[in-house]
Input
Amino acid sequence: MSKKILLTGFFALVFLSALYGQTHWLGLGPSVPLADFGEADVEHPTSGMAATGMALGYEFIGPTDSVGLAIFFNASFIWNPFDESSEAQIESSMRSPPENLKYSHYFGLPMAAGVNFSPRNTWQVSAGGVISFFKPSAMVMGRDVYKIKGTTGFGLTLGASLHIGSRVALKARYYWLTNHRLKNGYYRYYNSPENKVQNVNELTAMLAFRLGD
Output
C-alpha cells in the first residue's frame, strides 16, 4: 500500500473524527524514550541517545455507541533532549572538547487516529495508526555543524485514560514509530553510516483537561 493511500485514509479518518467530535482534551506531561530511541551507547548503530523530555497533547473523541466504541484523533508535540551519558561518552573521546559544543534535541509530532473503547465512564483504552514527523536539531562541534533533515514515518499507538471527575484525566500513550530515515547526521562522527533508520519508541504520560462544555 502506497504512502499516498495511507495518508488519504488517515486524514479522512481525522476529518470524520473532527466532524463528529464530542470531547476535546489538552494535556501536558513527560515523554520517555524507549528501546533504541532511549539507548545511550554512542557506539550502538541504532541508538537514539534521547533523554526524558516533555509532551503537549491534544485529543478529541467522537460520540460513543452502545458498545462503548468511538473514533479518536490524537496529536502530540514531543521534545526530548540529548542524553547526558551520551554527551559524556562523546566528550571523553575528544582530546579537547570545543567550547561551543552543542548537542541535538529531538522534536516530534505524532498524529494518531483509531478506535477508542470506554466500557466505563471512568477509564478508556484506544488503539490506532500513526503518522509521525520527526526532526532532530543540529549538533555543533567547533567549526563542524551536523545538520539532520526532518523525516516522516508510520507506526502504531496504544493509549489508556483514567478519568478523575468529568473534566480531568490521566492519559498514557505508547507510540511505536518505524523507519524514520535520518540523513546527513552527526552519527557519522562515531563511525556509523552517514544515513540511518531510527525507530522511535515513546511513552507519554499526561495530566489532561477537558475543553469546552
